[in-house]
Amino acid sequence: PDETPEILLIRQTRPDVAGRLSERFRLHRLEEAPDRDAFLGAAGPRIRGLAVGAMCPIDARLFDRLPRLEIVASFGVGYDSIDVAEAHRRGIVVTNTPDVLSDEVADLALGLLLATIRRIPQADRYLRAGRWREGSFPLTTSLRERRVGILGLGRIGRAIARRLEGFGVAIAYHGRTPQADVAYTYHDSLLGLAKAVDVLIVASPGGPGTRGLVDAAVLAALGPEGIVVNIARGSVIDEAALIAALQAGTIHGAGLDVFENEPQVPQALIDLDQVVLLPHVGSGSHQTRAAMGRVLTDNLFSWFDGKGPVTPVPETPWTGR
Ligand code: 8YV
């Protein structure tokens, strides 16, 4: 019998990923099946691996249709859309694409911070609208003298902090545990951090453990000069509370690359002049997305070579076969 492992692609459309996988595996694309239910009934029992796009919901209902599934290789560092506890119960390994995107996302975070504080997109719109001839662009607030707090000092949070060192600002952070190898000030509560800083950069994982952490009280603690930047997951911020704080002037502005219900962005945010809004582009360069694709495919190749996953998530540790 043909022992070529069968892999199902779900919301995974990169040609380089599919091209490399097709050298070794038999590929199916869920989105191409005219009747997904019929497809899963017929081919589901043969599928041994998944290659999935970022933020693609993967849960017990899907696992039920894939009884031979061994590995879920996800495109992206965040995997809050995957039920990893359920995967672990079933002995399925989940992999993500850490490290290769940290610098890219951190670059974007700094760009978003500066764009928000110095109103770079607004100034660009001002020029294009021909308004420079009428007078100078209004003065803005400044990054100078600011104290920056980072929520989540993981790989991306650290890359952001390293960049901020070059900007000469005070750096503090909050996370579950203080980290021994950094000199930044640790706060054991997010509210404590928010009281001590006037910029909050969100770099934590998404999922139930961080849902709504940045709430009305945290936003109020940042103060009227407060700036919020989010390059992590929209779910970490209570979006309604953020909109209310911006509308009331309780905080100064926000730079957001992620939203609670992407690609839906509340009109109330779009209507606000003091926010910079990006369509989830943190890792979105040709170079970094290609690197992420290689990590995804490396995981599937290594797994089916019997060498285990390259970058398993901590919730589904590889213990050998
Ligand atoms: C996505 C991301 O992977 O890595 C993550 O967690 O959110 C992004 O890098 C990207 O949008 C690709 O679709």
Describe it for me?
By secondary structure, the chain is of the alpha/beta class. It folds into 2 domains: 6-100 and 287-304, NAD(P)-binding Rossmann-like Domain (Rossmann fold); 102-277, NAD(P)-binding Rossmann-like Domain (Rossmann fold, 3-Layer(aba) Sandwich), CATH 3.40.50. It has helices at 15-22, 36-43, 60-65, 84-89, 102-118, 120-128, 155-165, 190-196, 216-222, 239-248, 267-270, 286-304, and strands spanning 6-10, 26-29, 47-52, 71-74, 93-95, 147-151, 170-174, 185-186, 199-202, 227-230, 253-256, 275-277. Strands 8-7-6-9-10-11-12 form a 7-stranded parallel β-sheet, with helices on both faces. It has a 5-stranded parallel β-sheet with strand order 2-1-3-4-5. Strand 4 (71-74), helix 4 (84-89) and strand 5 form a beta-alpha-beta unit. The protein is elongated. The structure holds 2-keto-D-gluconic acid (8YV). 2-keto-D-gluconic acid is lined by residues 53-54, 75-78, 101, 280, 282-283. InterPro entries: D-isomer_2-hydroxyacid_DH, D-isomer_2_OHA_DH_cat_dom, D-isomer_DH_NAD-bd, NAD(P)-bd_dom_sf. Keywords: NAD, Oxidoreductase.
